[in-house]
Amino acid sequence: MQKEDILAETAAYVQQLLTGEGSGHDWWHIFRVWNNAKNIAAGEQANLFVVELAALLHDIGDHKFHNGDESVGPRMAREWLQKYDLEGDLIEHICQIIQDLSYKGAGTSSSMHTLEGRIVQDADRLDAIGAIGIARTFAYGGHKNREIYDPAIAPVMHDSFEAYKNSTAPTINHFYEKLLLLKDRMHTETARQLAQQRHAYMEAFLEQFYAEWNGNR
Ligand code: ADP
Ligand code: NI
């Protein structure tokens, strides 16, 4: 089967799985990450087929929706890709990217081992910041029944993945724990450039948010 046909079938499969998802991990998130990834890859010498498949499949079995089980995503991706006659290490590579992709908290470092993985991680992280990132973050917080903000609760940085994952802090906390840190954790020049503006937008948002909260604007 042609690569384009495999990509089209994979996109249709993911679209059918994630359409209507209400926490910001819906099909359109995947679609944007796919586009970001292609855009970033255009400036790199990467295997585009691996980049595109990993971008498409990266959230199909996210641990946040499978009781914290991180093996579901890579397993679902492997089962899907085994339908095709692909070289063995290509499937392994894609599953490894999916496994390593997730943000594990402010105190942890990323373990992306290949250029293709770094591109997909940048693409996913671009969709976590800026205006879209803000929208997704509050959508996720609502999905988890979190308050948006509580002035009596100071921002916290959880120092393990376990604590980060189980945090019940108000949604604003996510800016300090993740979103504002991402611009300095981009791997590629293209993503670093795009992240600058999105980052500035989030800072302006927070300033306006607190000003309104205090009745000053
Ligand atoms: P990653 O793909 O890096 O693991 P996640 O899937 O955990 O990222 O998060 C993607 C987006 O979902 C975040 O950028 C944010 O918008 C939202 N999100 C995840 N966890 C939280 C949280 N604890 N509070 C608010 N939003 C969250
Ligand atoms: Ni994602």
From TrEMBL:
Residues 26-129 form the HD domain. Pfam families: HD. Gene3D superfamilies: 1.20.58.1910, HD-domain/PDEase-like. This is HD domain-containing protein. It comes from Pontibacter oryzae. The lineage of its organism: Bacteria, Pseudomonadati, Bacteroidota, Cytophagia, Cytophagales.
